[in-house]
Amino acid sequence: MSAVANKKLKVTLCKSLNGRLEAHQACARGLGLRRMWHTVEVADSAEVRGMINKIAYMLRVQEG
Questions:
Q1: Is there a contact between 9 and 44 (Cβ–Cβ < 8 Å)?
Q2: Rounded to whole angstroms, how far apart are CA atoms 15 and 27?
Q3: For residue 47, what is the domain's CATH number?
Q4: Distance between CA 41 and CA 62 in Å, rounded?
Q5: pLDDT value at residue 15
Q6: Which of 12, 23, 24, 54 could form a disulfide with 39 if both were Cys (CB 3.0 to 4.6 A apart)?
Q7: Strands lying side by side in the sheet with 39-43
Q8: Averaged in consecutive runs of 10 residues, what is the pLDDT profile of the chain (64 residues)?
Q9: DSSP string covering 1-64, please?
Q10: CA-to-CA distance for 1 and 21, rounded, in angstroms?
Q11: Res 6: pLDDT
Q12: Domain of residue 30, residue span
């Protein structure tokens, strides 16, 4: 279980949030993304994967 808890994902916002649905903007903010090309490391969990899947067209995701 601890090995799963330590997994991280690097998430980068590649497209602007301007003009996007409020729910999509909220997902980006929930992931900690503030502006274009901002990269954050987030824990690999089901909740985070759901947010990433919802706005995948705006993101670049890397393991590690």
A1: yes
A2: 14
A3: 3.30.1390.20
A4: 9
A5: 97
A6: 12
A7: 39-43, 8-13, 59-63
A8: 74 97 97 97 96 97 92
A9: -HHHHT-EEEEEE-S--TT--HHHHHHHHHHT--STT-EEEEE--HHHHHHHHHTGGGEEEEE-
A10: 35
A11: 81
A12: 2-63
- Using a cut of 0.90, tell me whether the model's pTM lies above it: no
Token pair for 27: 């997902």
> Is the Cβ–Cβ distance between 62 and 16 less than 8 Å?
no
Query: How many structural domains comprise the chain?
Result: 1
Specify the amino acid at residue 17: L
Report residue 64 as tokens.
């590690």
Residue 25's CB is within 10 A of a number of other CB atoms, namely 16
